[in-house]
């Protein structure tokens, strides 16, 4: 866990990876390097990628899903992240506690895809 509560993760897409985390330095998210398809809205693509991160266990239940961190990781504007989080919330993948933030829902709340 990093001081901000984020895990230092490594994957082929560098999702959730933090610059220098192997040396103990935390705090700066590395871009996921997502190649956006111009024929689909970016919020849908962010939604699909975050959903896959949740379903794979990379973002475990009860972990915080920060708007600011997603904006930095995906290189999109805040409104795009908010639309993606709204859709994830409507589909049962995340829940939001007013004034606290958004969190990954328990697996039994997820729809059967």
UniProtKB/TrEMBL annotation:
CDD domains: WHTH_GntR (cd07377). Keywords: DNA-binding, Transcription, Transcription regulation. Pfam families: GntR. The keyword DNA-binding applies. One of its GO terms (biological process) is negative regulation of DNA-templated transcription. The keyword Transferase does not apply. InterPro entries: Bact_HTH_transcr_reg, Tscrpt_reg_HTH_GntR, WH-like_DNA-bd_sf, WH_DNA-bd_sf. GO terms for molecular function: DNA binding; DNA-binding transcription factor activity. PANTHER family: GNTR-FAMILY TRANSCRIPTIONAL REGULATOR (PTHR44846:SF17), MANNOSYL-D-GLYCERATE TRANSPORT/METABOLISM SYSTEM REPRESSOR MNGR-RELATED (PTHR44846). This is GntR family transcriptional regulator. It comes from Nonomuraea phyllanthi.
């Amino acid at each position: 866990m990093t001081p901000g509560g984020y895990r230092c993760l490594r994957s082929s897409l560098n999702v959730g990876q933090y610059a220098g985390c192997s040396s103990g330095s935390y705090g700066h998210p590395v871009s996921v390097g997502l190649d956006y398809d111009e024929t689909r809205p970016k919020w849908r693509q962010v939604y699909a990628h975050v959903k896959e991160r949740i379903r794979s266990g990379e973002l475990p239940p009860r972990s915080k899903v920060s708007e600011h961190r997603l904006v930095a990781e995906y290189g999109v504007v805040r409104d795009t992240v908010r639309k993606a989080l709204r859709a994830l919330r409507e589909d049962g993948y995340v829940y939001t506690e007013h004034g606290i933030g958004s969190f990954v829902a328990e697996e039994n709340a997820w729809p059967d895809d």
